[in-house]
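Render this sequence as a predicted structure.
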Amino acid sequence: METQEKKGGNIAAIGMMFALFFMIAFVTNLAGSMGPVLKNQFGASDGASQFGSAANFFAYLFMGIPGGLILKRKGYKFTSLLAIAIGIAGLGVQVASAFVESFSVYVAGAFVAGFSMCLLNLVVNPLLNTLGGEGKKGNQLVQFGCTLNSVGATLAPWLAGKLIGDEIAKAKVMDAAWALYIAIGIFVAAFIVISLSKIPEPHMETADEKAARLAGKTSVVGDIFGALKFRHFTLGAIAIFLYIIIESGIPNFMNLYMTTEGTPGYVGAAVAGSLVAAYWFCMMIGRLIGGSIGSKISSRTMIVGCSVIGIALMLATMYTPVKMVTVMGKTFPLAMCFGVLCGLCTSVMWGGIFNMAAEGLGKYVPMGSGIFMAMVFGGMLLPVQGWLAEKVGYLQSYWMTIGLFAYVLFYALIGSRVSKKA
């Protein structure tokens, strides 16, 4: 009976984590899809048009380690509910920006929403990895969670493109407000469901750990350095810092390339939104495949292959001759097909890097997860690629992406090898 109750509790917990995985991508990709709107409504440059996404990721730097402490001391359920409440507040500020027509208010809302995304990531990744027993099974659950993440990632740009329409020069944040309302509604429903659910707490501090902390025998700094002593974890945190730029940079700059009048690839917001959604759909397909084979093929093998193919696809995106093709009634640049396929390569990287970096951390899993999430602030460097695009062009800015792919390849081949156990 006890075993059946535990199994049922695990299934319920897995279901809740999958739902939160969906929301992380939906909210994050709404910010990424607003670049063309920010350019046209507020006259933002290509670099500044990425401030919404950058602010969302920048929040991770401030919330990562404090979030790890909250997770350790208050547990998964409390952290989930706190994250959802903050998410509702951040989305509310973004809705307010549509009424006051303020660029700074929109960016502030994206920043607040970023705190929520960071806390949610802190919860879903380690809990799914733990519920799966770590190793290949843990990787399999994380990959399936990432599949739901990709569903949210696919729907957000598609919905934004539909709401904005083809008149990109007249587009305003208000045009996409319904997407924000939908996100708020889903968060409210998730808050109610999770508040009524029983969530296991495998990593909450024990009574002895709490007593030791209050007596000054343990410290936050000690936990941080304890996690960083694992060489494979430290290099993995750097890999995540760089990977975030890869994952979001590819579709964001595809979007700008196809929605900026005067570029060879201009097709308008609706078609561009569909192509960007196709990229995230490819990520979903890749994660389904990764989840299916995750118990048989290691994260290392997956990421090595995907990094090499990703570099090849980026080169094809950059150097394919300008040619328009029509598929299912939509006309777009042929080169964008290769950019879309990159979604298959980035699909397993988040889960795979986390799986390799967290292996063997033991009692440092909560703090390690906090540090890991803090490094997601690498996304704030998206404006750097934007400024590079202003100098050399949207497609040539992908040389930056290729360099980042190269580091991920290094991590999978060499840097991810476990140096010690806790």
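Summary. The chain has 16 helices and two strands. The CA atoms of residues 48 and 365 lie 36 Å apart.
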